[in-house]
Amino acid sequence: MEHSEVWKSGRIVRFLTKDKVKLNGILFADSSDAKTCLIYIHGMTGSFVSSIVGALANALPQGFGLFSFNNRGHDQVSSMSKFIGAKRVRFRAGTSFEKFEDSVYDIGGAIDAMQKLGFRKFILCGHSTGCQKAIYYQYKMHDRRVSGIALLGPADDYNLLKKQLGRRYAVVKGKCKRLISKGKGEVIPDLEIGLCAQRLDSQINLGRVEARLLDYSGPMKEFGAIKVPILAVFGSEEEYRLMHVDKHLDILSRKSRSMHFSKLVIPDANHSFTSNETVLAKNIYAWAAALKSS
């Protein structure tokens, strides 16, 4: 079924990350004096185009910019460009093949590109696995330009995948380890999951940071190290919850050492906040405006 939306006009921005990967995004800004930019980080198989981004663009208040970009995990499988010296090299990426730890280059590159355009403060807004990427970036980089982090649907990918694999968990985990040790990390060991060995291992092996970041049953030390203000949002009908969403938020609140932790439940909203995107956008900007004025 065809579906169309009307968005406020934006500007395409192309940039290179520090490791020379070429990425694209779209910038929305009502005025040249806007100094705070919301950086939207999509989740697995996502892209810079989504109904959430459309709602954020249409609700954009004065004094803010919005930059939504394709990270190297966009879509299920994608072909991307990287420059080695002057030579352009194609490589396989997308959710199935990305290396989670490289997300710091993507987010850092987006912030650098927006800084060159005049923005000075940045709010990371991650959706789904974009939440883990936002948390990891700030944990790793301690970027003073980041003034807050909004987490939209911060689900527990580790325990969700462990539950999905069931009795096969140990077998699949062992297969990933063997493939990686043989230099075959890009082989897909489980067609049902559809992730290559190193990507799947990143999510089901607690020795890897991606698995630990939002393991609600674990210490979540990386999340706990974040000091900037945090807004965590779930829809009441979150389909990827492992417990009631209020309990997820309570755990985040207890484990956070943020200078200001806020939590929100959007009634009747699912993981993608379908039909509730405008309410979500208005709440994000109200929280961001309060940060800006404090």
Defining traits:
two-stranded antiparallel sheet; globular; single chain; 2 domains; 35% helix; Rossmann fold; 294 residues; eight-stranded mixed beta sheet; alpha/beta
Describe this structure in words.
With 294 residues, this protein is of the alpha/beta class. It has two domains: 11-156 and 217-293, Rossmann fold; 157-213. The chain is built from ten helices and ten strands. The chain has helices at residues 51-58, 103-116, 129-141, 157-165, 169-181, 197-204, 209-213, 221-224, 245-255, 277-293, and strands at residues 11-16, 22-29, 36-41, 64-69, 78-84, 87-93, 121-127, 146-152, 230-235, 261-266. The strands form two sheets. An eight-stranded mixed beta sheet has the order 1-2-4-3-7-8-9-10, sandwiched between helices. It has a two-stranded antiparallel sheet with strand order 5-6. Helix 2 (103-116) crosses helix 3. It starts with 10 loop residues before the first strand and ends with a helix.
| Tally of DSSP β-strands | 10
Total number of helical segments?
10
What is the average per-residue confidence, as pLDDT, rounded to a whole number? 95
Arrangement of strands in the largest sheet: 1-2-4-3-7-8-9-10
* Unreliable stretches covering 5 or more consecutive residues: none
Q: What name goes with the CATH superfamily of the largest domain?
A: Alpha/Beta hydrolase fold, catalytic domain
CATH fold-type name of the largest domain: Rossmann fold
Tell me the radius of gyration. Answer: 18 Å
Query: How far do the termini sit from each other?
Result: 45 Å
Share of residues in helices = 25-40%
Q: In what range is the share of β-strand residues? A: 15-25%
The shape is globular
Which structural class best describes the helix and strand composition? alpha/beta
| Number of self-contained structural domains | 2
The arrangement of helices and strands along the chain is: EEEHEEEHEHEHHHHHEHEH
